[in-house]
Target: UDP-N-acetylglucosamine 1-carboxyvinyltransferase
Amino acid sequence: MGGDLIITGGMPLNGTVHIPAAKNSVLPLLAAALLCNGTVRFLQVPHLADVDTSVELLQGAGCTARWQGSDITVQGVPSTCRLAPEAATRMRASILFCAPLLARLGRVETVLPGGCRIGARPVNLHLSGLAQMGVHCREEGARLILTAPAGLYGADITLGFPSVGATETLLLAAAAAQGETVLRGAAREPEISDLAAFLNRCGGCVQGAGTSTIRVQGRRMLYSCSFAPMADRIVASTLACACAAAGGRVELTGCRPETYAPLLEILAQMGCRVETGPESAVITRLGALHGAGRVFTGVYPALATDAAPLLAAAMLAADSASSIEDVVFERRFGCAEGFAAFGAAVQVQGRTLDIRPVRQLQGACARAADLRGGAALVVAALAARGRSRITETGYIDRGYAGFAQMLAELGAQIEREMPRESASEKKTPSKKQN
Model:
Protein backbone atom coordinates (compact mmCIF):
# COMPACT_ATOMS: atom_id res chain seq x y z
CA MET A 1 0.00 0.00 0.00
CA GLY A 2 2.86 2.39 0.84
CA GLY A 3 2.65 5.85 2.33
CA ASP A 4 3.73 7.08 5.75
CA LEU A 5 1.82 6.55 8.98
CA ILE A 6 1.13 9.77 10.90
CA ILE A 7 0.40 9.23 14.59
CA THR A 8 -0.45 11.67 17.37
CA GLY A 9 0.30 9.84 20.59
CA GLY A 10 -1.05 10.12 24.10
CA MET A 11 -4.55 8.77 23.40
CA PRO A 12 -5.67 5.64 25.31
CA LEU A 13 -7.08 2.74 23.32
CA ASN A 14 -10.56 1.40 24.01
CA GLY A 15 -12.72 -1.10 22.17
CA THR A 16 -12.91 -4.60 20.71
CA VAL A 17 -10.98 -6.14 17.82
CA HIS A 18 -11.68 -9.48 16.16
CA ILE A 19 -8.26 -10.92 15.32
CA PRO A 20 -7.81 -11.84 11.61
CA ALA A 21 -6.31 -15.03 10.20
CA ALA A 22 -2.60 -15.56 10.77
CA LYS A 23 -0.14 -14.64 8.05
CA ASN A 24 2.23 -17.32 9.38
CA SER A 25 -0.48 -19.92 8.85
CA VAL A 26 -1.92 -18.66 5.55
CA LEU A 27 1.43 -18.76 3.68
CA PRO A 28 2.21 -22.47 4.26
CA LEU A 29 -1.46 -23.30 3.64
CA LEU A 30 -1.28 -21.65 0.22
CA ALA A 31 1.80 -23.74 -0.54
CA ALA A 32 -0.03 -26.87 0.64
CA ALA A 33 -2.82 -26.19 -1.86
CA LEU A 34 -0.36 -27.30 -4.56
CA LEU A 35 -0.71 -30.85 -3.25
CA CYS A 36 -4.49 -30.96 -3.69
CA ASN A 37 -6.61 -32.06 -6.62
CA GLY A 38 -9.67 -29.87 -7.01
CA THR A 39 -10.32 -26.36 -5.79
CA VAL A 40 -9.25 -25.34 -2.30
CA ARG A 41 -10.92 -22.38 -0.62
CA PHE A 42 -9.29 -20.50 2.27
CA LEU A 43 -11.80 -18.45 4.22
CA GLN A 44 -11.48 -14.90 5.58
CA VAL A 45 -7.86 -14.30 4.53
CA PRO A 46 -6.35 -10.89 5.40
CA HIS A 47 -5.23 -8.91 2.35
CA LEU A 48 -1.49 -8.75 3.05
CA ALA A 49 1.47 -8.07 0.79
CA ASP A 50 2.96 -11.51 1.57
CA VAL A 51 -0.35 -13.20 0.73
CA ASP A 52 -0.40 -11.40 -2.63
CA THR A 53 3.18 -12.61 -3.22
CA SER A 54 2.10 -16.19 -2.48
CA VAL A 55 -0.77 -15.87 -4.95
CA GLU A 56 1.73 -14.54 -7.49
CA LEU A 57 3.98 -17.58 -6.91
CA LEU A 58 1.05 -19.95 -7.45
CA GLN A 59 -0.01 -18.17 -10.61
CA GLY A 60 3.59 -18.14 -11.86
CA ALA A 61 3.70 -21.93 -11.46
CA GLY A 62 0.63 -22.22 -13.70
CA CYS A 63 -1.99 -22.65 -10.99
CA THR A 64 -5.28 -20.81 -10.80
CA ALA A 65 -5.28 -18.67 -7.66
CA ARG A 66 -7.57 -15.73 -7.10
CA TRP A 67 -9.28 -13.60 -4.49
CA GLN A 68 -13.04 -14.02 -4.19
CA GLY A 69 -14.10 -11.36 -1.75
CA SER A 70 -12.15 -12.10 1.44
CA ASP A 71 -11.55 -15.75 0.43
CA ILE A 72 -8.82 -17.20 -1.78
CA THR A 73 -9.48 -20.12 -4.12
CA VAL A 74 -6.65 -22.24 -5.51
CA GLN A 75 -6.70 -24.84 -8.27
CA GLY A 76 -3.26 -26.17 -7.46
CA VAL A 77 -2.15 -28.12 -10.54
CA PRO A 78 1.18 -26.58 -11.62
CA SER A 79 2.40 -26.53 -15.20
CA THR A 80 5.95 -25.28 -14.63
CA CYS A 81 8.65 -26.09 -12.10
CA ARG A 82 9.96 -22.51 -11.97
CA LEU A 83 9.05 -20.18 -9.13
CA ALA A 84 8.92 -16.54 -10.23
CA PRO A 85 12.30 -15.19 -9.04
CA GLU A 86 11.19 -11.62 -8.36
CA ALA A 87 8.37 -12.85 -6.12
CA ALA A 88 10.54 -15.52 -4.46
CA THR A 89 13.16 -12.97 -3.40
CA ARG A 90 10.46 -10.87 -1.74
CA MET A 91 9.74 -13.21 1.17
CA ARG A 92 11.37 -16.07 3.00
CA ALA A 93 8.22 -18.22 2.89
CA SER A 94 8.76 -18.80 -0.84
CA ILE A 95 10.91 -21.81 0.14
CA LEU A 96 7.70 -23.54 1.29
CA PHE A 97 6.51 -23.87 -2.30
CA CYS A 98 9.45 -26.11 -3.24
CA ALA A 99 8.34 -29.37 -1.59
CA PRO A 100 4.86 -29.37 -3.17
CA LEU A 101 6.33 -28.64 -6.61
CA LEU A 102 8.81 -31.49 -6.12
CA ALA A 103 5.93 -33.79 -5.21
CA ARG A 104 3.96 -32.72 -8.30
CA LEU A 105 6.67 -32.31 -10.94
CA GLY A 106 9.85 -33.87 -9.54
CA ARG A 107 11.80 -30.65 -10.01
CA VAL A 108 11.79 -27.04 -8.88
CA GLU A 109 13.91 -24.06 -9.87
CA THR A 110 13.94 -21.04 -7.59
CA VAL A 111 16.24 -18.49 -5.97
CA LEU A 112 17.36 -18.24 -2.38
CA PRO A 113 14.44 -16.69 -0.52
CA GLY A 114 14.32 -13.12 0.78
CA GLY A 115 12.52 -11.51 3.72
CA CYS A 116 13.23 -9.16 6.59
CA ARG A 117 16.88 -8.42 7.42
CA ILE A 118 16.81 -9.62 11.03
CA GLY A 119 19.72 -12.05 10.92
CA ALA A 120 20.86 -15.29 9.35
CA ARG A 121 17.95 -17.40 8.13
CA PRO A 122 19.60 -20.30 6.29
CA VAL A 123 17.60 -22.96 4.48
CA ASN A 124 20.08 -25.75 5.21
CA LEU A 125 17.63 -27.54 7.53
CA HIS A 126 15.02 -27.55 4.75
CA LEU A 127 17.51 -28.91 2.20
CA SER A 128 19.19 -31.52 4.40
CA GLY A 129 15.80 -32.92 5.38
CA LEU A 130 14.66 -33.03 1.76
CA ALA A 131 17.92 -34.78 0.82
CA GLN A 132 16.98 -37.61 3.20
CA MET A 133 13.72 -37.90 1.27
CA GLY A 134 15.44 -38.37 -2.10
CA VAL A 135 15.95 -34.78 -3.23
CA HIS A 136 19.10 -33.68 -5.04
CA CYS A 137 20.10 -30.05 -4.52
CA ARG A 138 22.28 -27.89 -6.75
CA GLU A 139 23.12 -24.21 -6.39
CA GLU A 140 24.08 -22.11 -9.41
CA GLY A 141 24.87 -18.66 -8.06
CA ALA A 142 21.64 -17.42 -6.53
CA ARG A 143 19.63 -20.15 -8.28
CA LEU A 144 18.51 -23.23 -6.40
CA ILE A 145 17.65 -26.35 -8.42
CA LEU A 146 16.00 -29.27 -6.63
CA THR A 147 15.16 -32.60 -8.26
CA ALA A 148 13.58 -35.83 -7.01
CA PRO A 149 14.33 -38.31 -9.82
CA ALA A 150 12.78 -41.27 -7.99
CA GLY A 151 10.08 -39.23 -6.27
CA LEU A 152 9.86 -38.35 -2.59
CA TYR A 153 10.04 -41.15 -0.05
CA GLY A 154 9.57 -41.29 3.68
CA ALA A 155 12.49 -40.98 6.07
CA ASP A 156 13.35 -40.71 9.75
CA ILE A 157 14.59 -37.12 10.13
CA THR A 158 15.92 -35.33 13.20
CA LEU A 159 16.10 -31.55 13.08
CA GLY A 160 19.08 -29.98 14.84
CA PHE A 161 16.91 -26.97 15.73
CA PRO A 162 13.08 -26.81 15.90
CA SER A 163 12.79 -24.53 12.88
CA VAL A 164 9.21 -23.63 12.00
CA GLY A 165 9.97 -23.22 8.29
CA ALA A 166 11.92 -26.48 8.02
CA THR A 167 9.18 -28.36 9.90
CA GLU A 168 6.60 -26.99 7.46
CA THR A 169 8.71 -27.86 4.40
CA LEU A 170 9.27 -31.43 5.55
CA LEU A 171 5.65 -31.85 6.60
CA LEU A 172 4.55 -30.79 3.10
CA ALA A 173 7.03 -33.18 1.49
CA ALA A 174 6.05 -36.06 3.78
CA ALA A 175 2.33 -35.62 3.06
CA ALA A 176 2.94 -36.65 -0.57
CA ALA A 177 5.92 -39.00 -0.10
CA GLN A 178 5.97 -42.77 -0.44
CA GLY A 179 5.77 -44.44 2.95
CA GLU A 180 6.11 -43.06 6.47
CA THR A 181 8.10 -40.04 7.60
CA VAL A 182 9.04 -39.48 11.23
CA LEU A 183 10.10 -35.91 11.99
CA ARG A 184 11.89 -35.56 15.32
CA GLY A 185 12.86 -32.28 16.96
CA ALA A 186 9.97 -30.62 15.13
CA ALA A 187 8.70 -27.12 15.87
CA ARG A 188 5.61 -27.10 18.09
CA GLU A 189 4.05 -23.77 17.06
CA PRO A 190 0.26 -23.67 16.62
CA GLU A 191 0.73 -22.76 12.94
CA ILE A 192 2.28 -26.25 12.47
CA SER A 193 -0.86 -27.79 13.98
CA ASP A 194 -2.99 -25.66 11.66
CA LEU A 195 -1.09 -26.92 8.60
CA ALA A 196 -1.47 -30.52 9.81
CA ALA A 197 -5.21 -30.00 10.37
CA PHE A 198 -5.55 -28.78 6.77
CA LEU A 199 -3.60 -31.73 5.35
CA ASN A 200 -5.74 -34.16 7.36
CA ARG A 201 -8.90 -32.40 6.17
CA CYS A 202 -7.71 -33.05 2.62
CA GLY A 203 -7.19 -36.78 3.24
CA GLY A 204 -3.65 -36.70 4.65
CA CYS A 205 -2.45 -38.64 7.68
CA VAL A 206 -0.46 -36.46 10.09
CA GLN A 207 -0.12 -37.37 13.77
CA GLY A 208 1.70 -35.57 16.57
CA ALA A 209 1.62 -32.00 15.24
CA GLY A 210 2.10 -29.67 18.19
CA THR A 211 4.62 -32.07 19.74
CA SER A 212 8.31 -32.53 18.97
CA THR A 213 7.69 -35.80 17.05
CA ILE A 214 5.42 -35.81 13.99
CA ARG A 215 4.52 -38.96 12.04
CA VAL A 216 3.19 -38.73 8.50
CA GLN A 217 1.86 -41.47 6.26
CA GLY A 218 2.33 -40.26 2.71
CA ARG A 219 -0.68 -40.11 0.42
CA ARG A 220 -0.67 -40.38 -3.34
CA MET A 221 -3.44 -37.86 -3.64
CA LEU A 222 -4.94 -35.12 -1.48
CA TYR A 223 -8.39 -33.69 -2.06
CA SER A 224 -9.96 -30.25 -1.95
CA CYS A 225 -11.69 -28.62 1.00
CA SER A 226 -12.64 -25.28 2.51
CA PHE A 227 -10.52 -24.20 5.46
CA ALA A 228 -10.46 -21.28 7.88
CA PRO A 229 -6.88 -20.52 9.01
CA MET A 230 -6.19 -19.92 12.70
CA ALA A 231 -6.18 -16.42 14.18
CA ASP A 232 -3.00 -14.35 14.20
CA ARG A 233 -1.42 -14.50 17.66
CA ILE A 234 1.18 -11.90 16.62
CA VAL A 235 -1.49 -9.36 15.63
CA ALA A 236 -3.14 -10.07 18.99
CA SER A 237 0.23 -9.56 20.70
CA THR A 238 0.71 -6.28 18.83
CA LEU A 239 -2.63 -4.87 20.00
CA ALA A 240 -2.04 -6.08 23.56
CA CYS A 241 1.32 -4.27 23.61
CA ALA A 242 -0.26 -1.16 22.06
CA CYS A 243 -2.81 -1.06 24.88
CA ALA A 244 -0.05 -1.52 27.46
CA ALA A 245 1.96 1.33 25.91
CA ALA A 246 -0.89 3.80 25.35
CA GLY A 247 -3.19 2.81 28.21
CA GLY A 248 -6.90 1.98 28.05
CA ARG A 249 -8.90 -1.23 27.72
CA VAL A 250 -8.85 -3.48 24.64
CA GLU A 251 -10.71 -6.74 24.12
CA LEU A 252 -9.22 -9.18 21.61
CA THR A 253 -11.62 -11.83 20.29
CA GLY A 254 -11.34 -14.87 18.05
CA CYS A 255 -7.78 -15.78 19.10
CA ARG A 256 -6.98 -18.34 21.80
CA PRO A 257 -4.99 -16.60 24.57
CA GLU A 258 -2.98 -19.78 25.17
CA THR A 259 -1.22 -19.19 21.82
CA TYR A 260 0.36 -15.99 23.14
CA ALA A 261 0.19 -16.67 26.88
CA PRO A 262 3.84 -15.75 27.69
CA LEU A 263 3.31 -12.21 26.40
CA LEU A 264 0.09 -11.80 28.36
CA GLU A 265 1.83 -13.06 31.50
CA ILE A 266 4.62 -10.48 31.11
CA LEU A 267 2.12 -7.65 30.56
CA ALA A 268 0.34 -8.71 33.74
CA GLN A 269 3.66 -8.59 35.62
CA MET A 270 4.17 -5.07 34.24
CA GLY A 271 0.93 -3.85 35.83
CA CYS A 272 -1.74 -4.55 33.19
CA ARG A 273 -4.91 -6.33 34.14
CA VAL A 274 -5.33 -9.38 31.89
CA GLU A 275 -8.55 -11.38 31.74
CA THR A 276 -8.83 -14.39 29.45
CA GLY A 277 -11.53 -16.66 28.07
CA PRO A 278 -11.36 -19.61 25.65
CA GLU A 279 -10.99 -17.32 22.59
CA SER A 280 -10.67 -13.83 24.02
CA ALA A 281 -8.44 -11.65 26.16
CA VAL A 282 -9.07 -8.26 27.76
CA ILE A 283 -6.05 -6.07 28.49
CA THR A 284 -6.52 -3.05 30.73
CA ARG A 285 -3.88 -0.53 31.72
CA LEU A 286 -5.05 2.41 33.80
CA GLY A 287 -2.12 3.10 36.12
CA ALA A 288 1.65 3.08 35.81
CA LEU A 289 3.44 0.49 33.68
CA HIS A 290 6.41 -1.19 35.36
CA GLY A 291 9.57 -2.72 33.95
CA ALA A 292 9.65 -6.46 33.34
CA GLY A 293 13.22 -7.17 34.44
CA ARG A 294 15.00 -9.60 32.11
CA VAL A 295 12.92 -11.40 29.47
CA PHE A 296 13.88 -14.04 26.88
CA THR A 297 12.24 -15.30 23.73
CA GLY A 298 12.38 -18.97 22.78
CA VAL A 299 10.78 -21.67 20.70
CA TYR A 300 7.10 -22.33 21.32
CA PRO A 301 5.57 -22.35 23.92
CA ALA A 302 8.02 -19.67 25.08
CA LEU A 303 7.69 -15.98 24.17
CA ALA A 304 7.60 -15.70 20.36
CA THR A 305 10.53 -14.04 18.62
CA ASP A 306 8.07 -12.02 16.50
CA ALA A 307 6.62 -10.54 19.69
CA ALA A 308 10.00 -9.32 21.00
CA PRO A 309 10.08 -5.86 19.35
CA LEU A 310 6.41 -5.31 20.19
CA LEU A 311 6.93 -6.07 23.86
CA ALA A 312 10.06 -3.91 23.82
CA ALA A 313 7.96 -0.99 22.52
CA ALA A 314 5.61 -1.35 25.51
CA MET A 315 8.61 -1.52 27.85
CA LEU A 316 9.66 1.96 26.65
CA ALA A 317 6.67 3.40 28.53
CA ALA A 318 7.54 1.65 31.83
CA ASP A 319 8.80 3.41 34.97
CA SER A 320 11.67 0.97 35.58
CA ALA A 321 14.24 -0.94 33.58
CA SER A 322 13.73 -3.96 31.32
CA SER A 323 15.84 -6.05 29.01
CA ILE A 324 14.77 -8.51 26.35
CA GLU A 325 16.96 -11.08 24.61
CA ASP A 326 16.00 -12.83 21.38
CA VAL A 327 17.61 -16.25 21.10
CA VAL A 328 16.39 -16.88 17.54
CA PHE A 329 17.63 -13.95 15.41
CA GLU A 330 20.78 -11.95 16.05
CA ARG A 331 19.44 -8.70 14.56
CA ARG A 332 15.91 -8.74 15.88
CA PHE A 333 16.12 -5.23 17.35
CA GLY A 334 16.74 -3.13 14.25
CA CYS A 335 13.95 -0.95 15.64
CA ALA A 336 16.26 0.32 18.41
CA GLU A 337 17.39 3.27 16.29
CA GLY A 338 13.75 4.28 15.88
CA PHE A 339 13.12 3.88 19.61
CA ALA A 340 16.04 6.23 20.29
CA ALA A 341 14.49 8.81 17.96
CA PHE A 342 11.49 8.89 20.32
CA GLY A 343 13.88 9.72 23.18
CA ALA A 344 14.02 6.20 24.62
CA ALA A 345 17.12 5.14 26.53
CA VAL A 346 17.95 1.90 24.72
CA GLN A 347 21.11 -0.03 24.02
CA VAL A 348 21.64 -3.16 21.92
CA GLN A 349 24.25 -5.58 23.20
CA GLY A 350 24.47 -8.63 20.97
CA ARG A 351 21.00 -10.17 20.91
CA THR A 352 19.80 -8.17 23.92
CA LEU A 353 17.97 -4.84 24.05
CA ASP A 354 18.40 -2.95 27.33
CA ILE A 355 15.77 -0.34 28.18
CA ARG A 356 16.02 2.30 30.90
CA PRO A 357 13.06 4.45 31.91
CA VAL A 358 12.64 7.99 30.59
CA ARG A 359 10.17 10.60 31.70
CA GLN A 360 8.25 10.82 28.44
CA LEU A 361 8.65 9.61 24.87
CA GLN A 362 8.44 12.39 22.29
CA GLY A 363 6.97 12.22 18.79
CA ALA A 364 9.56 11.76 16.05
CA CYS A 365 10.17 10.48 12.54
CA ALA A 366 11.31 6.85 12.41
CA ARG A 367 11.87 4.34 9.62
CA ALA A 368 10.56 0.78 9.68
CA ALA A 369 13.47 -1.57 9.01
CA ASP A 370 11.49 -4.82 9.12
CA LEU A 371 7.96 -6.14 9.65
CA ARG A 372 7.66 -6.53 13.43
CA GLY A 373 10.13 -3.74 14.16
CA GLY A 374 7.99 -1.42 12.04
CA ALA A 375 4.86 -2.34 14.00
CA ALA A 376 6.83 -1.78 17.20
CA LEU A 377 7.60 1.79 16.12
CA VAL A 378 3.85 2.38 15.73
CA VAL A 379 3.29 1.05 19.26
CA ALA A 380 5.98 3.38 20.59
CA ALA A 381 4.48 6.34 18.73
CA LEU A 382 1.12 5.68 20.41
CA ALA A 383 2.80 6.24 23.78
CA ALA A 384 4.79 9.32 22.70
CA ARG A 385 3.73 12.91 23.21
CA GLY A 386 3.09 14.77 19.98
CA ARG A 387 3.18 13.86 16.32
CA SER A 388 5.19 11.00 14.81
CA ARG A 389 5.81 9.81 11.29
CA ILE A 390 6.66 6.19 10.44
CA THR A 391 8.18 5.68 6.99
CA GLU A 392 8.94 2.55 4.90
CA THR A 393 5.55 1.14 5.88
CA GLY A 394 5.65 -1.48 3.13
CA TYR A 395 7.31 -3.75 5.69
CA ILE A 396 4.33 -3.36 8.02
CA ASP A 397 1.88 -4.11 5.20
CA ARG A 398 3.48 -7.54 4.81
CA GLY A 399 1.92 -8.68 8.09
CA TYR A 400 -0.91 -6.27 9.03
CA ALA A 401 -4.01 -5.60 6.95
CA GLY A 402 -5.69 -2.27 7.64
CA PHE A 403 -3.40 -1.61 10.61
CA ALA A 404 -4.10 2.12 10.78
CA GLN A 405 -7.86 1.59 10.57
CA MET A 406 -7.73 -1.11 13.24
CA LEU A 407 -5.97 1.26 15.66
CA ALA A 408 -8.13 4.23 14.70
CA GLU A 409 -11.25 2.25 15.59
CA LEU A 410 -9.75 1.83 19.07
CA GLY A 411 -9.35 5.60 19.42
CA ALA A 412 -5.80 6.13 18.17
CA GLN A 413 -5.10 9.30 16.18
CA ILE A 414 -3.48 7.64 13.19
CA GLU A 415 -3.74 8.06 9.45
CA ARG A 416 -1.87 7.00 6.36
CA GLU A 417 -0.42 9.77 4.22
CA MET A 418 0.01 8.60 0.66
CA PRO A 419 2.92 10.00 -1.37
CA ARG A 420 2.05 12.84 -3.70
CA GLU A 421 1.98 11.95 -7.35
CA SER A 422 5.04 13.42 -8.98
CA ALA A 423 4.65 15.69 -11.94
CA SER A 424 6.21 13.10 -14.25
CA GLU A 425 3.66 10.50 -13.11
CA LYS A 426 0.63 12.70 -13.65
CA LYS A 427 -1.30 11.88 -16.75
CA THR A 428 -1.95 14.68 -19.18
CA PRO A 429 -5.68 14.80 -19.88
CA SER A 430 -6.44 14.00 -23.47
CA LYS A 431 -8.08 16.66 -25.58
CA LYS A 432 -11.56 16.00 -26.80
CA GLN A 433 -11.81 15.63 -30.51
CA ASN A 434 -14.19 17.97 -32.27
